[in-house]
Amino acid sequence: MSHDADSAEAEGSVTTSRDGAVLRVTLDRPSRRNSLTHRMIDGFVDTLTDAAADDSLRAIHIRGAGDDFCGGADWVATNNGGPRPRTGDLVRRIPHAAHRVIELVHSIQLPVVCSVRGWAVGMGCNLALSADFTVATTDAVFWEPFVDRGFSPDSGSTWLLPRLVGLARARRMLLLGEKVNASDAADWGLIHRAVDAGELDKTVDELLTRLSSGPTVAIGLAKQALNFGQHATLSQSLTQELYNLELSCRTSDFKEGLEAFRHRRDAKFQGR
After folding, report:
1. What CATH number has the domain bearing residue 30?
2. Where would you tag: which of 40, 70, 94, 150 has the fewest CB atoms within 10 A of its CB?
3. Which residue spans traverse the membrane (predicted)?
4. Which pLDDT tens digit goes with each residue over 178-197?
């Protein structure tokens, strides 16, 4: 292997492929449990930003190469003994990088499915939690080791965990650094499902098929309303639902849904 190839492998990459209307995104740095370098995070942001504007897409699948999902942000690689960054570097840079990945996965008006094997650590854990559906193998582990490593939690963990599993369990994960296996994570409501390793790909593909054949606009608006409702009153949420309903009722899929109901057949949505 050439020096350039060695360097590229060390830096890792975020690769994409199209499977019909599904965009498959792979975190590709298996030798480091797919821990995210600056280059990978920048590529991830670009990928999700482009996907948000691609009308031909109807679902996104995020996975890790090899035996693990994601070992988090690679703090060793990003703190390599070079010149000390000036004060405020994290505050300036992170909102447009690592935090932007979490925001995009959480808010993009496409359904996002993560498949998790092995470790989902730190930012990798929060990436899985920010997806709409995460399916993991029963031996997968979700871990938030921020405090164990001497710094405070980031990448949305303090927002995501209390909403998914409540404050008591969030404290266990964030303040005590407790590791959570996939079976417990599913029981807690932290993830969608835990399945045997041999069933992971089939389960995820079935879920993606269902989501990508649905009314994409209505699904995106439903996702937006769910997110909005996390910090809104009932009255505000009802108003938001009305605006979303006004939009979804103007889609071709709405007309198809009514026709299918009228004729007692399955709807054939086109995502428009």
Report:
1. 3.90.226.10
2. 150
3. none
4. 999 999 999 999 999 999 99
